[in-house]
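Any chance you could type out some protein's one-letter sequence along with its backbone structure tokens so I can compare the two?
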Amino acid sequence: MTSNGELISEWQRRRAQNRASQRAFRERKEKHVKGLEHQLEDLHDKHQDLLQSYSRQADEVTKLNSRIQDLTSELEMLRSSNDMSFSELLTPEKFDAIPGSDMLYSGPEFYFDKGVMDPNSEFSLNQLDDAL
């Protein structure tokens, strides 16, 4: 038969074993919860990055759709102008800011002597400096 002292010793051993088992369970649980929290934080960051990327791409799509609409309207306008030929559409008069104005480019309004810039010419830059 077992003595009273042996029962207490067995009970204490069993109690210590239960405490160790509970402590190990709490440590595993805490480690698992920290892993889940870290995973949640990573997923939240990825979600925010995806939202920003989506917003940028949605803005770009809107701009591109607007550009498509503008170009389509311009193309329809060009196609609908049956009374003008393509060459008539491209004449300079069509692009004048003031219709009927004769503002034609007649060349430079100043004279530039290329010889001044030639170091081998008679008239060098030193002479130009003296002249000024």
